[in-house]
UniProtKB/TrEMBL annotation:
InterPro entries: Homeodomain-like_sf (IPR009057), HTH-type_TetR-like_transc_reg (IPR050109), HTH_TetR (IPR001647), MT1864/Rv1816-like_C (IPR025996), Tet_transcr_reg_TetR-rel_C_sf (IPR036271). It comes from Pyxidicoccus fallax. The lineage of its organism: Bacteria, Pseudomonadati, Myxococcota, Myxococcia, Myxococcales. PANTHER family: HTH-TYPE TRANSCRIPTIONAL REGULATOR RUTR, TETR-FAMILY FAMILY TRANSCRIPTIONAL REGULATOR. This is TetR/AcrR family transcriptional regulator. Transmembrane segments: none annotated. Keywords: DNA-binding, Transcription, Transcription regulation.
Length: 218
């Protein structure tokens, strides 16, 4: 490996170190409370070294959110190969759950934090409507394909309503477990079992009964 390649690799490793430290601080202490100096202290770098990579805190947050949203979307896109539309939605729900369990700090940053205008207005650098980058667009696509295959009852044809109901149910369960899992007053059942039950109930409510045919909705 040449000097140029080694320096580039070291640069990327440092950026990732900064992003990981910032994620933890933003989640635990809040965006407003965290300073660039605080991030530098976390990784034992000088503040000047942080500014070499990010011009300010908003730029750091924008890259972090874009990076994590793309990683989240990539994890969900793996279910696209499942052939049956309803089973694909079920697998999508489980993939959502798995991501939240494996990356709780990332999940909190993406879905349990408010972003300041200078970060939120940037749209996180994600191409809205592109299912490969926009996780909600991917969910809509999966629901639309199930609708087009005639999987849903005639009264359940609103793709956004179905998408948001599924997402809201999963997010509610994940948030409950992330916030209350150590609460002795609330004996939470395993998250996986709760999510499977919720998906059974929701998808069962949306879906046509077995044997009722798969006529495409008009």
């Amino acid at each position: 490996m040449g000097i140029k390649e080694r320096r580039e690799r070291e640069k990327q490793a440092t950026r990732q170190l900064i992003l990981d430290a910032a994620r933890e601080l933003f989640v635990n202490e809040g965006y407003e409370a965290v300073t660039m100096r605080r991030v530098a202290e976390k990784i034992e770098y000088s503040p000047t070294a942080i500014y070499v990579h990010f011009k300010d805190k908003a730029a750091l947050m924008r890259e972090l959110v874009a990076h994590d949203f793309l990683r989240f979307a990539e994890s969900l896109n793996k279910v696209a190969r499942v052939q049956d539309p309803l089973e694909r939605l079920r697998k999508l729900g489980r993939a959502y759950l798995a991501f939240a369990q494996e990356h709780p700090a990332t999940y909190k940053l993406l879905f349990m934090q408010r972003y300041p205008p200078e970060v939120d207005d940037d749209k996180h650098g994600i191409q809205q409507g592109n299912p490969e980058q926009d996780a909600y667009a991917f969910l809509q696509k999966m629901v639309q394909e199930a609708k087009d295959a005639g999987c849903f009852k005639p009264e359940h044809q609103d793709v956004d309503l179905i998408s948001q109901t599924l997402w809201g149910g999963l997010h509610g369960l994940v948030s409950l477990h992330l916030v209350m899992k150590e609460d002795a007053w609330l004996p939470l059942r395993p998250l996986g079992k709760s999510a499977d039950l919720m998906l059974d109930l929701l998808l069962g409510g949306f879906a046509r009964p077995p044997g009722s045919g798969t006529t495409r909705a008009r």
